[in-house]
Specification:
By secondary structure, the chain is of the alpha+beta class. The protein is built from ten helices and four strands; from the N terminus they run βαβαββαααααααα. Helix 1 links the parallel strand 1 and strand 2. Helix 4 runs parallel beside helix 7. The N and C termini lie far apart (45 Å). The structure holds glutathione (GSH). Glutathione (GSH) binds next to loops. InterPro entries: Glutathione-S-Trfase_C-like (IPR010987), Glutathione-S-Trfase_C_sf (IPR036282), Glutathione_S-Trfase (IPR040079), Glutathione_S-Trfase_N (IPR004045), GST_C (IPR004046), Thioredoxin-like_sf (IPR036249).
Length: 226
């Protein structure tokens, strides 16, 4: 069934990783997976631009359906393959509300992470300021404490929106993985550390782990002081 699906993706891109986890959780292994290189600018190749005028990854196609936005692709897969693989949207309205809340807060979480980790990439050199990066780090630190608190409230062994894995985990886990890859202290943030440990060995996550992280398991320590 997944043969009519194509995912164009880049290694270590959190938006791409979200879609890859969703595909695995929905048992859609066997899709056409094409790894492109950001270094070579392949996200601007004709193959990508033909389906994604933004020239970004992920770019995703299922038959004639094109869904490039990572959140949209994850929601599409859950809705299209509702009864297949892991159920990612709980039926219970209260659980569902929390799942939606954390899923969309995940966008803010990622934005704050990106404003620190990718500062030099996104801000032209002449516009970069130490004070701006410092402020971004403070904002990220406040955000991380929020998520640490959410997990503390849910109790040990919990996922982001309750006992079971949901779409919230699919879209937010890559952000958490980046935090630890870039040196966040699991001692200072034990709940996030526990959550990371719980998910990192999940088959869907292992199967989609960024290949260049496997080649080079040691990350950086950019976030060690947060
Ligand atoms: N809103 C998009 C964002 C995708 C995105 O920002 N992709 C980045 C990689 S993480 C990209 O392709 N950047 C290269 C570029 O914009 O040229 C989504 O969530 O799918």
């Amino acid at each position: 069934m997944a043969q009519d699906m194509t995912l164009l993706w880049g290694s270590g891109s959190p938006p791409c990783w979200r879609v890859m986890i969703a595909l695995e959780e929905k048992n859609l292994q066997g899709y056409n997976s094409k790894l492109l290189s950001f270094e070579k600018g392949e996200q601007k190749s004709k193959e990508v631009l033909d389906i994604n005028p933004r020239g970004q990854l992920p770019s995703f196609k299922h038959g004639n359906v094109v869904v490039n936005e990572s959140y949209a692709a994850c929601f599409y897969l859950e809705s299209r393959f509702k009864s297949q693989g892991t159920k990612l949207i709980p039926d219970d309205p209260t659980e569902q509300a929390l799942m939606y809340q954390r899923t969309f807060e995940g966008l803010t979480f990622y934005e704050k992470l990106a404003s620190v980790l990718f500062y030099e990439y996104y801000v032209p050199e002449e516009e970069q300021h130490d004070s701006a990066l410092k402020r971004n780090k403070e904002n990220l630190s406040t955000e991380i404490k929020l998520w640490e608190g959410y997990l503390a409230k849910l109790g040990s062994g919990s996922h982001l929106a309750g006992p079971a894995l949901t779409l919230a985990d699919v879209v937010v886990f890559p952000t958490v993985a980046f935090l630890f890859r870039f040196g966040l202290s699991a001692e200072r943030y034990p709940k996030l550390g526990e959550y990371y440990a719980l998910l990192k060995d999940r088959p869907s996550v292992k199967a989609s782990w960024p290949p260049h992280w496997l080649e080079n398991p040691k990350g950086q320590d950019t976030l060690k002081d947060l």
